[in-house]
Fold each of these.
Amino acid sequence: MKRKDSLDVVVAGLSLVDVIGRPVTLSAAPRPGSLQYVESITMTTGGNVSNCGIDLALLGFRVGVITRVGDDAFGEFLHREYRRHRLQTGGIIVDTKAQTSSTMVSVDRTGERTFFHARGAMRNFRPSDILGNLGIVARAKILAVGYLGLLPESEPGLALLFSTVRRRTGVRILLDTGGTPKRNDALLASLLPEIDYFMPSFEEAAELTGARSPEGIIRRFRALGARGVVGVKLGARGCHISWEGKGKHIPAVKVRTVVDATGAGDAFVAGFLAGVLKGLDPFQAARVAVAVAGSCVTAVGASTAIQPLRAYLRGRRDPR
């Protein structure tokens, strides 16, 4: 019997507020002091904690969050949105010395995004923030941490964090990447043996390994000690997944109109974890992942178009 306070996933790391304007043509920016009209400006949640966490809640799972926010209006907005989606917020640390992390997102007519980011309270996020909430982690089945590449102050302590989490809780661990992570073979070699799921985007994986093909990237991850499921997110081409000595390309779901690609990678992670939690093998879970990511890009905002998991399992998703 499940405990009343049990969780499916704890999502830890980067949370922020996105202010999304579309369409914005940066190649023809307005003159200084002048004004340019856009069709919409939307304030929404962002970062892996928000995107992956809310997506998982919309898919039907119980989610806890561990992150830092400022003592400000943006922080209150994140608290409110998390509670609205029934995320467990006991792991949120309110940082009185920094503003909530936030990003201005400019989206052009093709859906491509350009980011202007203020790190704020996430400069002070450390693995100790997760270890200090180990009781919350222990209530879950999976800990999803992000992002490698965007939390540089945390990177030296990640290996100890993951080994401690494995030893003291036994939960499975997913590590996600973001931004432009720098190649660091020693760091990867300390992390990959400790985690169960690692599926960066192609651009991030190429930067991390120097390889230029999904197969080459995965071979490099294995050489650095990866023992679990590894893969490469390929955007509109789907993904390539490696598990138990087998590799498979999973094609993307066709989408008629791409509106906003914000959060598509996080939606992939949420869909993959949803599949795993439902007992699917990693290849089957990856098919759910590309379908959820396909939903994500059909509306403005990272979580706006996410549907309950049954829609993806039954093939009823409307790709718009």
Note: The two ends are 40 Å apart (CA to CA).
Amino acid sequence: MSVVVVYNPKSGRGRGLSVAALLVDHLRGRGMGVVSASIREQWRDLLNGARAVIAAGGDGTVHAVASAVLDTGVPVYQCPMGTENLFAREFGMSREPVEIGDAIERGRTRRVDVGMCNGRAFVIMCSVGCDANVIHRLDRVRNGAISHSSYAMPTLREVMRPAIPKLCVTVDGRVVVDGGRGQLVVANSRQYAMRIDPARDARVDDGALDVVFLPHETVAGAVAHGARARMRWADGRGVVRARGAAIRVESVGGETVYQFDGEASGRPAGSVDGSLAAGLAAHERLPMEISVRAGALTVLEGL
């Protein structure tokens, strides 16, 4: 059985190919059979019967690879080369070839849950609100690798013209948010960008998803909630927390977009003028139908 390395050549400020090549050489030097392919190539057929698959890139690369191996038992490991690398942070994964080789030889695996949002898988979280709006704004102009600075202009545009949604949220048949305005995070993992971690009690193997609603009327309110979460302070007024296996999120009075694992829910077809949801397919906008598939993904653990 071969180890499959799927790499994003533009990750790591364009060093994805060279990092993947060093990793492949190291693993072969340890006597392992290894095949590699760019995320932009036809790589899915390589996964059949693989010993492990190494996603060399950011969380977007992990998202694509994990979606392809659900329920197959093929273990996934991230060689972190992205902006946040939340998957690697959750499981203690390293980009050092020696440590990746050690993890493969140990073969210690773990079955974890996967969330499903409108038919698409997510491993870390999905959300709707200011963070999703910024990701969509960036997705419409991005060209290649991104860094933290890439978010500056999309964030400024969100501050100047905020699109704060009004939401109704149901968890396992119980209404937990009824027409509140703010941001919603549905988390499978405790990890979040910039270590803000609003769902810090979430677990990847409990068969449930953590729901966190942060009420606010302005972008400043969203920043305040983020600062509280970053500092591990008590929740602000009106924060809603719930946990369940079936979540429905509806928008009140307007179309709203969402994101999962840091990726925009879809690319618009045709004109991008108007609202952020303009041109998106129906399943790429609210309502969101979210469920959990317990133990659907096998992870190759790091340290």
Note: Helices lie at 11-14, 16-29, 59-68, 86-91, 97-106, 130-139, 152-160, 219-231.
